[in-house]
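Protocol step 4 of 6: record predicted structures for both targets in the notebook before any analysis. Target 1:
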Amino acid sequence: MDTKTTWQPNWAARLTIADALFALVALAAGLLRLVNLGSLPLSPKEAEAALAVWRFWQPGHTAVFPGSPAYFTLTALATQVLGFSDAVMRLVPALFGVALVLLPWLLRQRMGPVGALITAVFLAVSPITTITARTAGGEAIALFAIFLLLAAWVRWQDSRDGRWAITLAAALGLGIASAPLFYSGLAALGIAWFWQTTIGPRLNQPEETGEVDETAAETETEKETAVGPAAALTGLIVFLMLTTTFLFNLSGIGGGTAVFTAWVQQFGRSDLEPVIKPFLAIARYDLTLIIVGFAAFVWASWNRQALPRLFVYWLLGGFAIILLQQGIISNAALASLAGYLLLGCFAAAMIGDKIHLRGWGLTLGLLIVWGLMFVNISRFLRISVFNPTDFSHIWIALFGLTLALTTIYFLITWDVRSTYQGVLLSVLAMLFLYQWGTASWLGQMAANDPRETWVTTGTDDDVRSLIRQIELLSWQIVGSGTDIDLYSAVNSPVLAWYLRDFPQAQIGDSLPPAATFSLILTPDVAEPAFGSDYMGADFGLLHTGVVSSGLSVSPILDTLRWWLFQESTAVSQQQRLVLWLRADLTQ
């Protein structure tokens, strides 16, 4: 009996250029999210999450209720291999941030390789997704989970493959254990699903043949029935393992409920931040969505394609959640996620499968013009502080814009497709460079600077200098770097985290009467009453806000100078403290 075998190429032979480009995008995402991960001290919110992990492994600490069970569990396991440090506390979110950039690959059959690749590129360089991934907590895990849930649902609609149903359930279990942001994304998806089922078009819209394929419907029902128990069990296992730290912490099983409760409480906060702040964050960091996103929104609303329309509905649902949960700036990440998916669909439709040589030529020419405009506008912003009436650079920029618009006007009558390709590619290239620089700046240098829209309260770099000074004094006084007796009258999670290795350290809300500790920390505004003579030095602790210096010529110009050069006349407010050393120890 003759048997025929069909040759199947191995995975390496099946790789395409698009796959290689996705690998490069992942590398870029890794550079933005993993390089210098511990360069900045933990913010107060990050310190709370890190302390929960650290205390879990300390004797005598049993009941731990972290803000994000998924972050807590995965970071707790990572610390047993890598130890406790600022970088390790941020490692799990950073890895999920890199994985998020790869998820558009799952939708390449619907979006096309070009659309999926462009979505991945701008998710990689998005300052919002970058800072979310470089922040200790569950928000980066929540973004990954909501995107994976969406991708699995779309693939399940297309193929009815049970593996996607199981993946969807796993994403749901991961998301419930992640952060309140997941519920915001789920609610936005629920709004999108409702609009798509009522307004249309649906993802699995059947052809209008006038007949109902009962056999196909029965087959799909049988598939759903067969895979349902396995999917539900998978989601439950993922949820239980993450909330109980793989059964090491059974008391944490209520963590998922706590996440949902925290999300519900965000609808009725009493200390509301400005409603517009998340929208300002989008304008500041994801400028691509403002410049190109509007065109993509109009295009998707005009063309009745199911997937782009779903992203439109999801974007509108995200905006609705932002308005309902006033001032929750992390919700801006949902708009970035939906917006870049929509942008990918739009770019794929405009660019097509092949870029004509004329399109590449126009792209290069327009890049030179955009660069000319950018340099001259930047130069004007530089000199405006000293000579605000010199508009020569503005005139040069306007000349460049006029030249570009005239060229586009004549070329579009000759070759529409190549013109569209050149304009879109040149604009996206300029925005890519801008967002790369902004993401690098925000993630590695300005994550604790409240002059940035994303930051509310940040930790001063002096905290690490303070700890080094305490270690030095401890060596000089007791012959050990950590055994000195110390009392802090400043009750801060930041201090609790950085003083975790000092077993004799005590932290309280006020100073005990007639205190005689070797070292004492107090707020710089206090007038402490000690039981002995002390000498002190002050250090910065937190950046709590921004104060205008009154030197700005124009708030708009000052904002633009900060965006481009990170130069501002505004200064950040500081919370400072004083380290006191008992005088007799200096003798």
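Target 2:
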Amino acid sequence: MARHKSADIRNIALCGHAGAGKTILAEAMLLKAKSIGRLGSIADGSTVSDHEKEEKEHRYSLNSSVMHLSWADKEINLIDTPGQVDFQGGMIGGLAAADCAVVCVNAMRGIELMTRKAWDLAGRYGLGRIIAINRLDGENVNVQEILAGIRKAFGHKCVPFVTNQGEGESLSGVKPVLVDAPEGEAAALRQSAIENAVEADDALMEKYLESGEVSPEELAAVMPKAILSGAVVPVFMTAAEKGVGVAELLDFVAAYAPSPLLSTRKLVDADSGAETRLEAREDGPALAQVFKVVSDPHVGKLCYIRVFSGKLESKSLIGTTSAGKGEKLTQLFAAQGEKREDVQEAAAGDIVGVAKVENLHIGDTLYGSGSLRLEKMPFPHPMTGLAVAPKNRGDEQKMGSNLHRLCEEDPTFTFERSERTGEQVISGLGQVHLDVMLSRLKSRYGMELDTRPPKIPYLETVTKEAEGSYRHKKQSGGAGQFGEVHLRIKPNARGAGFEFVNAIVGGVISGPFIPSVEKGVRKALERGPVAGFPLVDVVVELFFGKEHPVDSKDIAFQIAGEMGFREIVEGCKPVMLEPIVNLEIAFPAQYFGDISGDISSRRGRPTGTDQMGEMQVLKAQVPLAEVTDYGSTIKAITQGEGSYSMELSHYEPVPSNIAQQVREKARAMQESGKTSAKTSARM
């Protein structure tokens, strides 16, 4: 039998920018509920949430952490998510498992970059949202300014609820809202909250418009639906380290946060591709999703799962999207940070873990029957890279297997061999991200790597049309070779890739030799004519040719295709392309001039600005080659107060002066490689 009924479960993700006090708020909630005996400390690494070695060293969350507590006859699952931009993968996974996001705002700093990202992602998932203005006991806190900034950024649906909790009145200076108030600000805010809430129910709104009244019972009944729809965004005030406002927030979550049975996540039909919405049912077919993976060298692989419908049972067989077959779930467990407690069954809405299921991955759907699957999570593509090699020779295979284990934990961290540069490259969301992953590699598996900046993945393309012919003829004893091709080369749309067009008429080249020509052309594409980078976005049309009844064969037309392309492409004005990234930078407004000037010096083009409370946001498109070291730059310019995110946008031609520098460097490296090869051969 399941531990809890679905209607009694609340799934809450604490999210927001680093420094908003999410981990301490989770700790204070656990303490209020008597799930722990004392308040842990980030400084001494004693919190339930931040239990990993690197988290204790850095003193902030690097992964999402799952906890649970009981309050007012409800079972509340807490997911503490990271607030650093480099570790937003944990936030993305954590929010995917929740029904309501508690967006934490630092009372001393207001809305920041990850506050906005958390808000937007919660909306994308269709979660209810509650705002917790935390650290009210900090210096120079002006709650009215923060509230004004929140309502400006997120709308007037954001309404303060209970704000005079004990000492909280002196901290916040705001009157209680959803209690009787004869006049003034509290009455106006209460009225606003009621009007917003009744919008979520047509019948109740009609009644309210007619009578101007709504009973407390009616308001309580409609509130979860109103929160889930975004009609109401309750705002709470907390000072977690002092315990201020924590009980009131828990009371509200237990009473009014949406239950798992109200979840309406997007589903995709695996057979038809059609999209629909989840109808969560305790007695429905099993439907769950993996949102977190930990690869522990001592206990093996741990997968954390949110059950959306039906139930999961220990030692049962379940279908998975990765394996495409039934997987046996070993003993399920409930998590309290790093501690685990065995459970036999998990109902719709519950969050559990399972060990030693190697074929489960983050984002996988677990299903009992049918073709409906939960949508994949929107992880950003990692853009900061390092070329790596093991310090000890012969450890290449060990390096690969251990790095792939780390990739399993974090979809924003990748390890692959670059086909364009030939390097083994790890990539992440920033330099700090990569430093942490290298630290984990050393602490968990005892492995250290040599690192260096990776080569920029330049490409090449053509800018005009040209045509020509090439005859390959070999008569040097034995069987001969003959193949003649006439090719027309022209630019393709940017990003459209390579297209081969067979325009042969009259059978001048036999059908079996057409793929041979294409194979030769594809080989030529691997090294472009400008600096040897892959050539893309080109259309090659084979429109004429000749063959010999005896000497024509596959290899002859491969060579003709390759060499013909290499000769003709020189007349197509080939150019180099460089990757352009979308850069989003958040920083205190006083640094705007320095930031914008630095971006201009990096050949960047501003694309927009935004305001997040006291923080300015600059959006720009910049060549990747110019921002490989941007983490240290933004830290230096803003005295550590700025942050940024980066994702690939598109490719553009490289300016001629830059292209010349890259070309010379590439040729020098090629010559160096040839010299090294000759030296090795002589030795």
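Step 5 preliminary note on target 2. The chain is about 30% helix and 30% strand. Confidence is low (pLDDT under 50) at residues 163-182, 675-683.
Proceed to step 6 after PI sign-off.
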